Amino acid sequence: MKRSVVVLYDGSKVALEAMRFGLPVININPFFDSLSFDPLINWVTFKWVASSKESLLKSLDEIMSMDNREYDNKRKEAIKYSKDYLGEKKSNYLDAFTLKDVSLNRRNIKKSKN
């Protein structure tokens, strides 16, 4: 993804990961239906939807023709959105689920319930 200029996706977390790198994303939705699996269905900044070859080319043209200031502003918004959505990676949340020490894990789980 680090070498990409734009990321095409259909309905996966790949779009969120691309936005975390500050990349524009295009949702490929050939049926343009409301039953989309797009995790960014309500997100419009730095995201385009393409339902045909023509709309894909138009989306790419819009991305490439943005001036640097607009591109940077939308890029920053996308990075912030993805970080807010995905959260920061914190391994301590998963420590209670490791199999290293079952008794320690049970204590951690009990503490989190209180």
Quick structural gist:
The chain contains 4 helices and 3 strands; from the N terminus they run βαββααα. By secondary structure, it is mainly alpha-helical. Strand 1 (7-9), helix 1 (14-20) and strand 2 (25-28) form a beta-alpha-beta unit.
Describe the structure.
By secondary structure, the protein is mainly alpha-helical. 45% of the residues lie in helices and 10% in strands. Strands 1-2-3 form a three-stranded parallel β-sheet. Helix 1 links the parallel strand 1 (7-9) and strand 2 (25-28). Helix 1 (14-20) packs across helix 3. The longest helix has 19 residues, at 68-86.
Oligomer: single chain
Beta-strand residue percentage:
5-15%
Q: How many strand units?
A: 3
* SSE arrangement, N to C: EHEEHHH
Shape: globular
Q: Low-confidence runs (pLDDT<50, min 5 residues)?
A: 97-110
Rg measurement, Å: 19 Å
Note the main sheet: 3 strands, parallel
Spatial order of strands in the largest sheet: 1-2-3
Number of helices: 4
